Amino acid sequence: MPYYDYEEGWKKRFELTIPLLLLVLVVLVLAWKMQWLCGVPGLGAVACGGSVHNILIIGNDPNIELMLNDVGLNFNHEVLNPDEIASLRDADYLKKYDLIILTENTGLNGKKDVLPNAFRGFLAQALVNKKFILFSGAGTKDTAEPYLNGWTADGMGNFVPVSCKTVDCDLDSHSVSQMKFRILDTSSPIFEGYNPTQPINISGTGSFEYLPVNLNGGNVHALGVIESEVGTQTLSDYGIVEGSSGVTGKTIYFAYNPSRTPTIFKNVVEYLLGGSE
Length: 277
Fold this sequence. Notes:
- The chain is of the alpha/beta class.
- It has one domain (43-272): Rossmann fold (3-Layer(aba) Sandwich), CATH 3.40.50.880.
- The protein is 29% helix and 26% strand.
- The chain has eight helices and 14 strands.
- The chain has helices at 2-33, 43-47, 62-68, 82-87, 92-95, 117-126, 169-172, 262-272, and strands spanning 53-58, 75-80, 99-102, 114-115, 131-135, 141-142, 162-164, 174-176, 179-183, 208-210, 213-215, 220-230, 233-245, 249-254.
- The protein has an eight-stranded mixed sheet.
- The protein is globular.
- The chain starts with a helix and ends in a 5-residue tail after the last helix.
């Protein structure tokens, strides 16, 4: 008799468990279909058909987010807005990302190119053996030090392959009405599909703004140049520069906002994260 009671109790518990198991199964199938599992370590690669990359955009730049939609990779992305940049107190938050994109729109009250010195230090810690994209004068100013100009402070310069031509990056900035982009490194995968003998078309209308820069020493080389007409002169400046650091660290610098060449930006993201899948 006691055995009979045990058996009945076991059956009842099992019958109660069946609906719960079915509910869990439904949730898992739904999560699989909706790709909610992409960001789960271990499961993401299986659920989403390959490795899943984590991308952080520092600053509010809707064009960068929009261009990521065309990237042929499985990824999650987050945006760190100016309030969050100012309040961040832990470098480990940045270290979990495979690719970090630093935009110009990082300062409170609409200020461009500024970073708190503490955040710049956190970023330098996080960029060890990471992939990094930045453009124009992003990160060249400090919120508390008005005389700081450039990327050298707080260790960030170790991961930026260029430097401003003068002590004031703002004075270097150019705005031109006509320009051409030409490929220097014809073997670079970021120019896949382009004719290396022809200039690349620039998207958008209005003036073209860019920051002329010098190449830093070390593992740095220019991928393309900007040719602009200023009066009767033709100026040639570095347009896209690649640099390496550490064992696997790599940085791509755009002298202009990469939204002007969206296909190249897409190719750069895929190149840094290991190619399209």
